[in-house]
Amino acid sequence: MSSRMMVAGALLVGCLGLSGCTGRDILAMRKRPEATQPAPGGPAAPAPPFKGPALAATTDYPKDANAPRPLPPPEFASLKNPLQPTPDTLAKGKALYDANCAVCHGPTGLGNGTAAGVLKPPPANFTTPIHGQLPDGYWFWRLSKGGGVAPFSAAGSGMPPWESALSAEQRWLVILYEHTFQPK
Known about the structure:
Helix content: 25-40%
CATH superfamily: Cytochrome c-like domain
Order of helices and strands: HHEEHHHHH
């Protein structure tokens, strides 16, 4: 194995460790999924408008990225973000996102971070139309509990739970920033 490959592997392991991934998460990583990158030389075509409910009691998500998302547990369902998107809160959210989320979700929320290629299911692409329709409680549930809850755990999601690493305010700041990935 070349020293270049060893350095790349060490860098990936370091990034995953800093992002909160556990050994279980790393073992859940499988073969490289097909890339869904924009065509070279230009941005990807805009996604068609999402049709249907954003949330559903039964769903094929995460196996089907276009399926409605599962309903969050009742204690999360009615939560609303207590923070407003100001330049200060967005800057704080960006700093937290860059430090903790971009390694998987990418710097622009496309789900194409440096670690994304080894994750199956792949990280969420926050620029898709459905993400603009998801309620705050869903976002807070997913960020807090990560991939360790059904149906994400059954799909092998490598997303770590952030509730013990980030305060509630920090999670809300990240969510504010993630909303900036939605087309205007």
